[in-house]
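Severity: low
Component: inverse-folding endpoint
Summary: output formatting inconsistent between runs
Steps to reproduce: submit the following structure tokens with default settings.
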């Protein structure tokens, strides 16, 4: 149980970190938009390039943490229960000759 709890706390920590990074990325996207408005020629806008690179950095970090989270979830899946062996019981053979005949048969 202790190992599962540790993995669950790791999952919770990863989820919290992903949420934090997403909030920071929202701020970066806003700054990138503001810098794009300041200078219409984006080829010469170093500030836009800075925020664009920062956004890509956040996207890659979020993708990595999401991948780690998926790997932890895969490990937490319950193990399949072993298949029960279904041994067939032998059925006793009935001797039909010894059974009395009824009028309905």
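Observed output (run 2 of 3):
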């Amino acid at each position: 149980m202790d190992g599962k709890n540790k993995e669950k706390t790791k999952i919770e920590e990863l989820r919290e970190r992903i949420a934090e990074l997403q909030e920071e990325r929202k701020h970066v996207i806003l700054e990138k938009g503001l810098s794009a408005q300041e200078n219409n020629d984006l080829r010469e806008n170093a500030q836009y390039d800075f925020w664009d690179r920062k956004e890509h950095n956040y996207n890659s970090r979020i993708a990595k943490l999401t991948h780690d989270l998926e790997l932890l979830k895969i490990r937490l899946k319950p193990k399949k229960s072993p298949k029960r062996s279904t041994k067939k019981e032998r059925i006793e053979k009935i001797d039909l000759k010894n059974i009395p005949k009824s009028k309905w048969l």
